Amino acid sequence: MSHLLEAIGLEKTFRSHGREVHAVADVSLRLSAGEALGIVGESGCGKTTTARMLLRLEEVSAGTILFENDDITHLRGAALRQFRARAQLVFQNPFDALNPRFSIRRSLTEPLRNFGVPRAEHTDRIHDALARVRLTPPAAWLDRHPHELSGGQLQRVVLARALLPGPRLIVADEPVSMLDVSVRAGILNLLREARDTLGLGAIYISHDLALIRYVCERTIVMYLGRIVEEGPTAELIAAPAHPYTRALVAAVPVAHVDQDRSALPIRGNLSDAPRTGAGCAFQDRCLHAMARCSDETPALRMISPGRKVACHLDGVPS
Amino acid sequence: MSLLEIDDLRVTYAGRVRAVDGVTLDVPQGSITGLVGESGCGKSTLGRALMGVLPGVGAITGGRIVFEGRDILALSERERRALRWRRMSFIPQTAMNALDPVQRLSAQMREVLMERGGLSRQDAALRAVELFRLVGLDPARLAAYPHQFSGGMRQRASIALALALSPALVIADEPVTALDVIVQRQILDVLRHLQSSLGLAMILVTHDMAVVAYACDRVAVMYAGQIVETGPVAEVLARPLHPYTMGLTHAFPDVHDAHMTLVPIEGSPPSLLNPPPGCRFAARCPFADARCHAEAPPPRMLAPDHRVACFHAEDAPALRRRAAEPATWLTVP
What is the ipTM of this complex? Predict the structure, then answer.
């Protein structure tokens, strides 16, 4: 089967104080058209860097990215611009994603011009995009400026702008974290709907597994730059195979009074965790670390169809 | 008697914006009260008004705050200052706002303990060690500067600072919002542990119902400068009486629910410059009628310890069923 997007062995290394730091190490993933993939993990886990590399917003240190079977890893110039129209980012912060001095009309016309869409199509495409995000009638919105819109309305404009060039892939990095709770649901529902009706591939980046579950069938869990677990979101939440995933699931607060309040199955703080050295990156925080974990970095291995884990354990003891 | 009684409190910004508009709330001794609402609803302003640290353009324009039996709005600035840190203290959202970036944590602890608390240098050093242990920090790290700490450790340090002089009430303004989920949970556990072991009362300001469910005993739901519902968390979550609270309970994804449909609350809160005469939520409420738009509903006690400001609260069981349907909320113009 051919994939919309495929990444093989992505790496991102930075130099810091003369040392090489792996922000992302050996990340491989696949995404089909119409599929939504979540990448979940805490700050510094490399999820945002991974997403930015996939969109070619960040140079790749090593690895290959295939988009619709073309190698886009090192695209330049016109070819890169063409790719940008096909793969769009939905910004996290709608309050600074739009130029405050531009009317909504101008903010929405700009990308069409940049991507060379014939002028005659502009109005129809803008009206269509605004209808998809339920900003209707279009005339009521086009002449407004960002300061006249609420956060939820701005995020709808940002989403409309991402949909305008007719992308096949959208990447949303914490798409609702800056929004008020009452309007978050509306944006998430619009994202789901856009993916379903347009058959887009979607990648969601978040630290919130509850949000990821709502929008993604499949999820990748990252820890310190590496994929530690991958699988169907529901299975991964119901029966985490990696001790880190288990802690992550247990940490998500739920809106019921009856819930598990026992101590999280994890040790220490993220900042205490080593970034270099041999063995599993999670060993110092793991309740089940064995001698082998400090000698040998666990490879990502298949444990059942569609499920992979990078852990020496055979299942997490409960 | 409650530790804190807020009666019809009003706070105005620039003389015109009614950020807190007639809030009445009791905070019992030794409990965690969640103050939940969206940005701009007045929850942070209320917290700051209690602490007496409103920004320059903000002023208390009415009502009373009775704390430990004393009307603290009648106190002089000097008496009020004496209450801060000693009897009530504050944990801000961003720990960096509580911590001085160019001073070692030990020096910051010493300053509060000696200058505010009148401890000797030696007692202050001992107390600082004790406080670090209390919040789960290694006392050896007292010599560190704030930037050498992770976000979670900084928040722990800012909690230690707030607890330095054993206050009776701690007001925490979105203390976990900026943190990752695992750290969030660890900080909430620290707060819960402190509350139960020290018998503290705490007001936890948050936008997140799940944080309230996890950590709080009581909840007050704020909307557009007013409290629309208060009660024990278990009661309010299981049987919300106000349509806004009902809406909030369907607005969050649940990590363990495979088939949930999120229901957005359409529209946005009214301007507090010129709020509408009736119920502030009426414009977004699928159940509002003519009376709701004309008349402000007074808070009423409908179940033991459970208050609500809604004319339709008697119909809550039926409204709760309808509020779970996305189509219900789409009827709002």
Answer: 0.89
